[in-house]
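hey so u asked for the seq, here:
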Amino acid sequence: MTRHHPDGLSLMEYSAGNLSEPHALCIRLHLDKCSHCRSRVDTLDSLGAVMMEQQPKVSVSETVFDDILARIDDLPSVQQPAEKAAPKVSILQKLLGEDINKLPWKRQLGDVSVLDITEKFPGQKEQVVLQKLVAGGKAPAHTHRGTETTIVLQGAFADQKGVFNQWDFVVLTEEDEHKPVAVGCEDCITLSVLSAPVKLTGTFTRLLNPFIR
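ran it, structure tokens below
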């Protein structure tokens, strides 16, 4: 069961079609496995349709969207039954062309391998990368020069914020510094959308920052 979800504002932007293609993909991948968030998006979709139909007749208060977000974020979490993996696999294979474990990974640093797939999203400003952390491995300590949106595709990782399992969703900013560790018996693979490169903060690894794009 997923425990880390997109916030209400992100779901509203997704429902309205205002997100970039890479960010929308991350949320779509999460929604395919999280019926709680799907229900929230369905509510937003229905509300948006009603507002569009009644727009000439109804005046909308300045606080209506804040009120909606508050209600959406207050919806209780629900226990989810095990869900089928087929829809998720087909989406990834359509994007990547093959199984994620068979991709031409490039060793980046220590236990981390990456594959930049930004070219699959022409016209987008963000960098889109797949990252693989070997089972039991540690990623270098780092922070972010911008925003990083991540969906866990396989395995799990842990940092100071907790454990992030398959299909969990996380957004990190310049205020977050972490050192992910892959937990469990399989490699942890994530899909990340970055508005700017990460910034290594380790005593020695920070010397590599000029070479990171």
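The first strand starts at residue 106 and ends at 109. The CA atoms of residues 143 and 177 lie 4 Å apart.
lmk if thats what u needed
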